[in-house]
Amino acid sequence: MGVADLKDIAQAAYGRELRDVTRLHGGSKKGVYRLTLDDGTTGIAYVWRASEDYWPTHEHDPLFGNASGRDLFLTAHTALSEAGACVPRLVLVDRDTIVVEDLGGEFLEKLLDHDTEALERLWDDLQAVHQRTSPRYGRPSALQPEDAPPVPDVVLERALKHLAECCERVPRIAAERERLETQLRQRHATIEPRPEYGLIHGELGPDHVLVADGRPVLIDIEGVMFFDVEWEHVFLELRFGRHYRPVKGLDPQRMSLYRLAQYLSLVEGPLRLLDGDFPHRAAMREIAEQNIERALTA
């Protein structure tokens, strides 16, 4: 996608001519582009079009299936802003494109070893986000009905599906299928009911946090929903490693189930993405391999 494709968007957003377009790294369901205007200023365009989506198929469920799109972005932007988290300022909302401010700065993953202040601010912001609660889970604009299955049931069903699909692709997992299924069911059986759910980002790694003027800014926010916060914390401890900050009050039974469920998801998803023409193939294979090992030793 080049200048000709986005010149009208730039004109509508800034009232200026578009000089250059650069596709930024990342984004498997949307295109992310830096717009450089004729005066040298820049903006960021998120583009949701079929040509930008590398996934061959999407899960058809209201929570995890195809967590992408303009409307989900806008809903998440509002929810996170109201919770006190920092997100990029909206400049333009179009039919299939959103333009936000270009904050510059660095991704937190490059700063983890020396910007402790930004990391601590992130943990504080996340605690505030997680304290926003709802008696029903789901997207902020589409909460599940009161009689919907409990979150652990949803996670178990999805994990069993992923286990089956992993067995079709990974002989090492197929050889351990019975044991892994037993582990999932046993961990699920110990979980007690819960009356409310916290707001979570849904896929928060240090590559989804920009640091601008010392403040952590959340990006790739379309997966925001009300859910068990343990789901988020399992992903945080996985992605942040030794930089992860544990918090009090997490349910160890949920953490145990959700770890194994996420490992299986992070095998199935990357391998399915590789069925298509996703360009960063080595990275996806590495994610799958790492989580095969995690699943087999969880």
UniProtKB/TrEMBL annotation:
Domain of life from the UniProt record: Bacteria
Name this polypeptide is given: Aminoglycoside phosphotransferase domain-containing protein
Record-linked SUPFAM superfamilies: Protein kinase-like (PK-like) (SSF56112)
Positions in coiled-coil regions: none
Lineage, uppermost ranks: Bacteria, Bacillati, Actinomycetota, Actinomycetes, Pseudonocardiales
Pfam families attached to this UniProt entry: APH (PF01636)
UniProt signal peptide: none
Domain called Aminoglycoside phosphotransferase: residue spans: 73-226
